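Can anyone check this?
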Amino acid sequence: MHRPLIFKHKINSRTYNLFLEPLDVILSFVPELLSRGDRPLQMTFEDQMNALIYFHLQEHHSARHLVQDLRDNEFAKKCIAPEDGISRSNFSEVINSRGQEQL
């Protein structure tokens, strides 16, 4: 079914879930995201996918802009960001080096 694009409006959990529907089935088959070192991961692969989708829907200009939005925006805090939040350096590390196998 073809859905019209949602232009840049305020995203809420209902409209955001429309973008996640196709991923629900696929994510159940994706291998778990594992840490490569002693430090535990702050994001799951699902958190990573949510952040990337949100990044593109909101047309953020940089990881810094996205991480700031994950701290300040109530919707992003509740629905996109990991439970304990994420720092810019940890977000960049996850995006740059992890999730390649899953993608």
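Reply from J.R.: I decoded it. The chain has five helices and no strands.
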